[in-house]
Design brief:
The protein folds into 2 domains: about 1-110, no CATH class; about 115-235, Cytidine Deaminase, domain 2 (3-Layer(aba) Sandwich), CATH 3.40.140.10. It is of the alpha+beta class. Helices cover about 45% and strands about 15% of the residues. The protein has helices spanning about 1-15, 30-35, 45-50, 60-70, 75-80, 80-85, 95-110, 125-135, 165-180, 200-215; strands at about 140-145, 155-160, 185-190, 220-230, 230-235. It has a 5-stranded mixed beta sheet with strand order 2-1-3-4-5, sandwiched between helices. Helix 10 (about 200-215) links the parallel strand 3 and strand 4 (about 220-230). Helix 3 (about 45-50) packs across helix 4.
C-alpha cells in the first residue's frame, strides 16, 4: 500500500513538473523571450507561448513539438483546415483560434499599408512581398498591389478567393478597388496551386482584357505575376503585356 501511495505521489510530482510554470525561470519560453528576445526562441518555444497550456501529462512545449511534427513547420499550418487541427489530441477550438490568428497576423504584415516605404521595382519584389501569403495555398487567390506614381506600395488587396472563372466581374473589381484608393499604378498577382507558374490561355486572355480596361480609365497596369511555390512568372518581364514592351 505504501508503495502504491509513493508511486502516486511521484507521478503527481512528475505531472506537476511537466507544467511550464513549475520550471525554473531560465527554462520557461516566456521568460526566455523577455530576457533574450523572441529571435532566440525555437519554433516550438514560440508556439508553446501561444498555446499557454499543455494537456494532462505533457507541457505546452511538448504539445507544440507534437503539432510541429504533424504539420512540419509554420508554413505547413497556414492553409490547413480545421479537421486536420482537430486530429491533434489536446488542441481544441480556443487553441486553434489562437494559432490561426497569430499566423494570419504574420501573413498580413507585408500586406498592410506601407505609407510609401515599400517600393516595387521588378517582379521579384512582388514575389518577395506576397510569397508568404500565397505559397502552399490549396486554391487560387487573386490580389492587386496598388502603387503610387513612383511605384511605392499604397496597399495590397485580395479581390478574389477561389478559381478565377468569371473574368469580367473580376476586371470590374480590380478597376473599382484601384480607383477607390486613388492608386495610379497596379500589379495583379495570383497563385497556381499546381506548382507550375506558366500562365494558362485564360490567364493570358484575362491579362490582355485587363490591360485594355486599365488603359481606358487611365490606370497604368504594370504587370501580372503568377506565383507557384518558390517560382513565379511575370507577364511584363516575359514581354507578354500586349505590345511586347516592358512597362515601368
Amino acid at each position: 500500500m505504501a508503495e502504491v501511495f509513493l508511486f502516486i505521489k511521484n507521478n503527481d510530482r512528475m505531472e506537476s513538473y511537466k507544467q511550464i510554470k513549475n520550471w525554473s525561470k531560465d527554462e520557461r519560453p516566456r521568460e526566455r523571450l523577455l530576457k533574450h528576445g523572441e529571435q532566440y526562441l525555437t519554433d516550438s518555444e514560440l508556439l508553446a507561448i501561444l498555446l499557454r497550456t499543455g494537456t494532462r501529462g505533457e507541457s505546452a512545449l511538448d504539445l507544440a513539438k507534437r503539432i510541429l511534427y504533424k504539420f512540419g513547420d509554420f508554413r505547413g499550418m497556414i492553409h490547413t483546415d480545421y479537421r486536420s487541427w482537430r486530429e491533434v489530441k489536446g488542441v481544441g477550438d480556443a487553441k486553434i483560434a489562437q494559432i490561426k490568428a497569430a499566423i494570419e497576423i504574420g501573413k498580413r504584415l507585408p500586406l498592410t499599408e506601407s505609407n510609401g516605404k515599400i517600393k516595387v521595382g521588378k517582379a521579384e519584389d512582388v514575389f518577395n512581398l506576397l510569397k508568404s501569403k500565397l505559397q502552399g495555398a490549396k486554391k487560387e487567390k487573386f490580389l492587386v498591389v496598388l502603387l503610387n506614381s513612383k511605384n511605392f506600395v499604397i496597399r495590397t488587396i485580395e479581390v478574389a478567393d477561389g478559381s478565377v472563372s468569371e473574368v469580367r466581374p473580376l476586371i470590374r473589381e480590380v478597376i473599382s478597388r484601384t480607383l477607390e484608393y486613388f492608386a495610379e499604378r497596379v500589379i495583379c498577382v495570383h497563385n497556381h496551386p499546381s506548382g507550375d507558374p506558366i500562365p494558362s490561355h485564360d490567364d493570358r486572355t484575362f491579362t490582355n482584357d485587363l490591360i485594355r480596361a486599365a488603359d481606358y480609365v487611365g490606370l497604368k497596369f504594370l504587370d501580372h505575376v503568377i506565383i507557384a511555390d518558390d517560382k513565379y512568372f511575370s507577364f511584363n518581364e516575359s514581354g507578354e503585356m500586349g505590345n511586347g514592351k516592358k512597362r515601368e
